[in-house]
Amino acid sequence: FAIMQELKLTDLASNEVLLRGYTHLARGDWKSGLTDFEESARLARSYGNQYAVDYALIGVCEAALEGKMIARAAPACEHVYDAMAVPGERMAFPATMLMASLQLEQGRPARALQLLDPLMADGRGETASGVWIGALKTRAQALSVLGRNREAYAAMREAQAEAKDHYDRELQSGVAALR
User: Fold this and answer.
1) What angle separates helix 70-84 from helix 50-66, to the nearest 10 degrees?
2) Tell me, what's the pLDDT at 13?
């Protein structure tokens, strides 16, 4: 990282810090992830790459939500939703899912469902497993808060089944790699 900065390879440094942030997040260390995502966004701003800034802000939103730092998450989540939740953008689903999570955390479960239901209507498609599982869980929580417990239970069961399938695929992939 230091060498990249010394050589003024800020774009590579921004990407490395972003990946490190996701590594921290995957390990459950949202605080370190948040620090890295914010640094990645700062570096991306320094070389004028707005898409890289937006991408880093997805991480800021996700890490801050994970840490229940709603006031810190809100500006990043709102910006990412405005910038990336557009037709044809490959990050539209994650941006919308995170905005729905923010709405739920802010006590607006009906708004969370308004965001998620059309997004999820056609099924998972090409959506990454972790993002789809997050959307299912957020939807289940929103339904529960609204007292729609039967639907919430069904959504949580679907999330758990998807998570198990994802874990089994990852385990199988790891076993195959060891052979």
Assistant:
1) 140
2) 79
Q: Is 83 left (phi over 0), alpha (psi -120 to 50) or beta?
A: alpha
- Report the amino acid identity of residue 129: S
What is d(CA 136, CA 94) in angstroms, rounded to the nearest whole number?
12
**Type of residue numbered 24:** H
Mean pLDDT of the chain: 90
* Separation between Cα atoms, residue 59 and residue 53, nearest integer Å: 10
- Give the mean pLDDT of 134-160: 96
Q: For residue 112, how far is the Cα from the chain centroid?
A: 15
- Predicted confidence (pLDDT) at residue 89 exceeds the cutoff of 70: yes
Q: How many CA atoms lie within 13 A of 155 on its CB side?
A: 24
Backbone dihedral region for residue 28 (phi beyond 0: left; psi -120 to 50: alpha; all else: beta): left
d(CA 101, CA 109): 9
- Per-residue pLDDT, 168: 79
**40: amino acid identity, one letter:** S
Mapping DSSP to helix (H, G, I), strand (E, B) and coil, where does residue 137 land?
Answer: helix
pTM of the model: 0.87
Which residues 6+ apart lie within 8 Å of 85 measured at CB?
92, 95, 96, 99
